[in-house]
UniProtKB/TrEMBL annotation:
<feature type="compositionally biased region" description="Basic residues">
    <location>
        <begin position="65"/>
        <end position="77"/>
    </location>
</feature>
<dbReference type="Pfam" id="PF13011">
    <property type="entry name" value="LZ_Tnp_IS481"/>
</dbReference>
<dbReference type="GO" id="GO:0003676">
    <property type="term" value="F:nucleic acid binding"/>
</dbReference>
<protein>
    <submittedName>
        <fullName>Transposase InsO family protein</fullName>
    </submittedName>
</protein>
<dbReference type="InterPro" id="IPR012337">
    <property type="entry name" value="RNaseH-like_sf"/>
</dbReference>
<dbReference type="InterPro" id="IPR047656">
    <property type="entry name" value="IS481-like_transpos"/>
</dbReference>
<dbReference type="Pfam" id="PF13683">
    <property type="entry name" value="rve_3"/>
</dbReference>
<dbReference type="InterPro" id="IPR009057">
    <property type="entry name" value="Homeodomain-like_sf"/>
</dbReference>
<dbReference type="InterPro" id="IPR036397">
    <property type="entry name" value="RNaseH_sf"/>
</dbReference>
<dbReference type="InterPro" id="IPR024967">
    <property type="entry name" value="DNA-bd_IS481-type"/>
</dbReference>
<dbReference type="InterPro" id="IPR001584">
    <property type="entry name" value="Integrase_cat-core"/>
</dbReference>
<dbReference type="GO" id="GO:0015074">
    <property type="term" value="P:DNA integration"/>
</dbReference>
<feature type="domain" description="Integrase catalytic">
    <location>
        <begin position="133"/>
        <end position="326"/>
    </location>
</feature>
<feature type="region of interest" description="Disordered">
    <location>
        <begin position="53"/>
        <end position="77"/>
    </location>
</feature>
Length: 330
């Protein structure tokens, strides 16, 4: 097994071998060898005995695992734990409750069998998620739209409660549908680079093909301004992305268009995860009193995301992977 001696150990494998050879081959007394290598007589005797029996290969660390574990969970029960994890996709606590076991025991079994965490598995299949990252900026850009309900003047139900939120809706707009006030939605069009995670987002009024195509023209210009040449674009199968206008806009820029498999948003997961982060850290991060207040806070949050927010997947902000993000070399 690999050498795992702790930092305060007197002897490394090379030191053990030298000690053993002094005793076995040179005939040193155990006490003299122990004093020379600053260890105990018992330790010197142990390494000398191992050297006599197994030679130099025995100077490494041995496993501390016992030869027998009479109280270990039976193999049949371990198989039941693994089966429940694969079929039901339950966590350790729920499996433990179902089998009347300790959650810590179930966790050790799952670890022993190298079962991936639920957060790292595909919900549909239960298999480990295959993560990827492109080799260079611009090789692939993820594009998607997120729909957010507008906030009425005075605050919505998240800020002031459901009753007051409905009253604010009624006061904000005269539009009605089936007797209920309609204040509309904002559509966040996002383009995010696969390699750098650099994001460009605009809040627009709809997700029609004209709107999506015009957004991409501005997004492409933004990426070009920071030195990122877009080669491919990945979208879902929304109508705006299947339109001829969208296809021709990408063709004119010599960009390859890829679409995800139907009902498989995980393929476009980087932009989906960005939208989740956006919702948690900006859209619903605090009780805004109006839609204008929320939108006013968005440019600052997006700048923070691109330049300062630590991204765990890349080990720093997206700006650390974009050489000319600030434009000082243009």
């Amino acid at each position: 097994m690999p050498h795992t001696t702790h930092a305060n150990a007197r002897l490394t494998p090379a030191g053990r071998l030298a000690l053993a050879r002094c005793v076995v081959e040179d005939g040193w007394p155990l006490r003299r060898a122990a004093e020379r290598f600053q260890t105990s007589v018992a330790t010197a005797q142990r390494w000398a005995s191992r050297y006599r029996t197994h030679g130099a290969a025995a100077m490494g660390d041995r496993s501390s695992r016992p030869h027998r574990s009479p109280r270990r969970t039976p193999a049949r029960r371990e198989r039941r734990v693994v089966k429940l994890r694969l079929i039901k996709r339950w966590g350790p606590a729920r499996i433990a409750g179902h089998l009347h076991m300790e959650a810590s025991t179930v966790h050790r079994i799952l670890t022993r069998y190298r079962m991936p965490r639920l957060s790292c598995t595909d919900r549909a299949t239960g298999l480990a998620v295959r993560r990827y990252e492109r080799a260079r900026p611009g090789e692939l850009v993820h594009v998607d739209v997120k729909k957010l309900g507008n906030i009425p003047d005075g605050g919505g139900h998240r800020a002031v409660g459901r009753y007051a939120g409905v009253r604010n809706k009624q006061a904000t707009t005269a539009a009605r549908k089936h007797g209920s006030p309609v204040i509309g939605h904002g559509y966040l069009h996002t383009a995010i680079d696969d390699r750098t995670r650099l994001a460009y987002t605009e809040i627009l009024t709809d997700e029609k093909k004209e709107t999506a195509t015009a957004f991409w023209a501005r997004a492409g210009a933004y990426f070009a301004s920071v030195g990122i040449a877009v080669e491919r674009v990945l979208t879902d199968n929304g109508s705006c992305y299947k339109s001829r206008m969208w296809r021709e806009a990408l063709a004119r820029a010599q960009i390859t268009h890829k679409r995800t498999r139907p009902y498989r948003p995980q393929t476009n997961g980087k932009v989906e995860r960005f939208h989740r982060t956006l919702a948690e850290e900006w859209a619903y991060a605090r009780p805004y009193r109006s839609e204008a207040e929320r939108r006013e806070a968005f440019p600052g949050w997006l700048h923070h995301y691109n330049h300062h927010r630590f991204h765990t997947a890349i080990g720093g902000p997206p700006a650390t992977r974009v050489p000319n993000l600030s434009g000082q070399y243009s």
